[in-house]
Amino acid sequence: MAELQAFDVIFIGGGPAGYTGAIRAAQLGQTVACVEVEPRLGGTCLRVGCIPSKALLESSDKFLETKNTLKKHGVLVENVTLDLAAMLKRKETIVTQLTGGIAGLFKKNKITRFLGHGRLDGGGRVVVKAADGAETAITGKHIILATGSVVTPLNGVALDGDRIGTSTEALSWSQVPEHLVVIGGGVIGLELGSVWLRLGAKVTVLEYADRILAGTDLEVANAAQKLFKRQGMDFRLGVRVTGAQRDGADVVVTVAENEPIRCSHVLLAVGRKPNTAGLALETVGITLEPRGQIPVDDHFRTTAPGIYAVGDVIHGPMLAHKAEEDAVACVEQIVQGCGHVDYNLVPGVVYTEPEIATVGQSEEDLKKAGIAYRKGSFPFAANGRAIALGHTDGFVKLLADATTDRVLGCAIIGPRAGDLIAEVAAAMAFGASSEDIARTCHAHPTLAEVVKEAALAVDGRAVNL
Length: 465
Ligand code: FAD
Ligand code: NAD
Hints:
Strand content: 25-35%
Radius of gyration: 24 Å
Oligomer: single chain
Number of helices: 13
CATH architecture of the largest domain: 3-Layer(bba) Sandwich
CATH topology of the largest domain: FAD/NAD(P)-binding domain
Number of strands: 22
CATH class of the largest domain: Alpha Beta
CATH superfamily of the largest domain: FAD/NAD(P)-binding domain
Largest sheet: 7 strands, mixed
Helix content: 25-40%
Bound molecules: flavin-adenine dinucleotide, nicotinamide-adenine-dinucleotide
Structural class: alpha/beta
Number of domains: 3
């Protein structure tokens, strides 16, 4: 084994949690190492998650818009055809640019990168095993586990790395599926289902629950389902998938108490689970929570002294920005003695058309908790900018405490919902009331005026409706 190098902080995993935390630790004067098994830094998010999926969502949206709606703007384009290879190449170029950018940031911040699989070895040691089997041991005063998550498998679904795939395969199919069956009506199913629907596939979503987007405000999820149906997506709710197998060139999906479905491709998207395989947690006495997460306290400390965990591998929503917040708070806690994440204020965004964004509590959460609230809603159809854009579906719903008027939550379905939610998250972080948002001057004509109108509507005084 090669010589032992010592660091203040070692991250295992170079995704949004690992790379962001590594940079913050370096900014705070720590010597930092990051162990990542994949040649490209950036984790699931940059390599096979957030970024490539958004690149394809953007490209497929442009394709559909050019085909269907540009003529309404008086822009005539004839013979619109798809060059899928070029679309996939653009996606790869973006991934290469961004993952390379992280490597550059590591250099700039003097972070030492180790390429290989990391495992704990007790006594502050991490062993890095390279692809050729060579092992290097390093030591850290603080070791932060940021190994992310992997796809949850489903019994009977025979993943083949091709036509019966996960999100990773569905980001790279070189031909448009004739008929794509999506198992799971969650975020991945709807985003990647949308991509292939726009590019010409027939898309059938099989969802176990009696609704899509579990956990998202129900009124918004129902509105979304109606709009996706109008776009051509077929939904079967309350369905239990029992298997998916190749049958020659086809795939057969079996469903309890229903006829099997013959299709060309399957996307399995029934959730992700924490990735702890091969970390040798037993060498430091860490026992996983029942659902596979690494247990941590408010300071991201595991039960093993000097070992912490952040991101998808611990509790909370599996989101890139949450992973980043975890890592920064963990490092600041270690170095400066304070660091905190308000999990109530982590926005969630689904990048479909229209987008869906939420922050804080939903109406269902408030009812369940017995909190009295007032609600203000405003539709994009009554907003000048939305009409000019030609994107008028959806609404903003703002929820405020019935007594104090403090904003408790917001759900948006509509154009650029993911950008609009940031205003509400910031307002909530400052403890704003709906009156505060309503009295803030919003530029005209902007989509953000819909947020202001929803805030006015909490008090029954929306202007343009
Ligand atoms: P990861 O990004 O999973 O990074 C963990 C890293 O650790 C990986 O690079 C892995 O190779 C490495 N690793 C694991 N074990 C070891 C080991 N033992 N040794 C060395 N290295 C190891 N979230 C959003 O917020 N917005 C989105 O739009 C979004 N879109 C998504 C789309 C898809 C298709 C998917 C699958 C996910 C998406 N997510 C999105 C979720 C997001 O990708 C994750 O929440 C985020 O990547 C979690 O960051 P992380 O650093 O905790 O883990
Ligand atoms: P998800 O939890 O969003 O959705 C999974 C869906 O599958 C649920 O609706 C669930 O009821 C359903 N399901 C579970 N078992 C089933 C079965 N046997 N048959 C049919 N349906 C079943 O999970 P996902 O879509 O796989 O995404 C995984 C994670 O990645 C999520 O936690 C999400 O936060 C993250 N992600 C985020 C974004 C984003 O922020 N835009 C995009 C993609 C992924």
